[in-house]
Fold each of these.
Amino acid sequence: AQKITQTQPGMFVQEKEAVTLDCTYDTSDPSYGLFWYKQPSSGEMIFLIYQGSYDQQNATEGRYSLNFQKARKSANLVISASQLGDSAMYFCAMREGMGYQKVTFGTGTKLQVIP
Amino acid sequence: DVKVTQSSRYLVKRTGEKVFLECVQDMDHENMFWYRQDPGLGLRLIYFSYDVKMKEKGDIPEGYSVSREKKERFSLILESASTNQTSMYLCASRETTGKAKNIQYFGAGTRLSVL
């Protein structure tokens, strides 16, 4: 079974609108964390936001927020007030367990912001 | 700011050549990683190192080896390059303590073509 599933290969959003990128995960470990990374066409992966499984509140970082629904095993990324510079690939990732904590990445969603 | 530097952005090599991909980080991170990224497959872990001279296989280690002689440098080696190793290679390092614990920081990537 896929550990991280991103069902939207590509999405469009109008500039200044909000957009939600979906991510579901699968783990039996009680200790885990979820990440979102942005990859512009330049190639570098940029860390956006992190949510730990024991965190009580949803994580927020500026225009990014993580809609964490533990019972549904979903960790959707919400980008508010989209900008042209938000056009990029977005990857959801999960680390599991203690110690080394291997990280598994999803296949990504390509977001295009339309002027 | 964390800086992870990969020595080459683009490389073109011939089948059978020995290829070295170099990665240097400037934040004294203990953990370092090599991933390859292919369209539709996301990022897959090749090898990681949790300390100097320590290494562990990731999900797809076949055809690769690594070297970590100094804390800041993690090298990926293709002993005999093959065309199916044409890919984007991403290096990352990870903080293991403090507020930024768990976050992986990535280099800009090396796009390798094997002809």
Amino acid sequence: EVQLVESGGGLVQPGGSLRLSCAASGFTFSTYAMSWVRQAPGKGLEWVSGISGSGAGTYYADSVKGRFVISRDNSKNTLYLQMNSLRAEDTAVYYCAKASSDGYTLGVYWGQGTLVTVSS
Amino acid sequence: EIVLTQSPGTLSLSPGERATLSCRASQSVSSSHLAWYQQKPGQAPRLLIYGASSRATGIPDRFSGSGSGTDFTLTISRLEPEDFAVYYCQQYGTSPFHFGPGTKVDIK
């Protein structure tokens, strides 16, 4: 059974940093692209960042480019999102998602999300 | 970048009725890379349709997807009580992999 469990969310001050983790199980982690998607309170889904199975390819939304870094440790079956220079508008539930085997679909499986609140 | 627009913003229907949701892209999207997701309050999104028209595992056949190029449609043939939710389209062909703004299907 595929499981994705996010952690690392919490309250952080503007300008601060946070690292999110997504622990994966139930599939061969290294062969699947992964993504982070966020949802601000009462708003729609926003794709944040994606990474290829090997980690060689990374992609970012303009809203986080230069501030967030996506990475993965295939030996630990874990996806990460390092978030720096955080702003109030980064407040959201952050979901990790597993892509399809053919790479054509972003979110075949999703975690339950972790809440990040940026506030002083 | 490809921008997705969904209409209507809200669809008010009764159980048993047919729902037709539209997703329009600012430029052509490969059908292979167009998906629809359902999200209920407090829950993670769930994949409904991938490749524009293929149902994901476990999705009832009252859900169907169609379209190509810049115009895509999600149809729910007969609404069940559990179908009242927000629906998002999303393209995964060209980064950034934007979602549409969503269509809320609520009970009339």
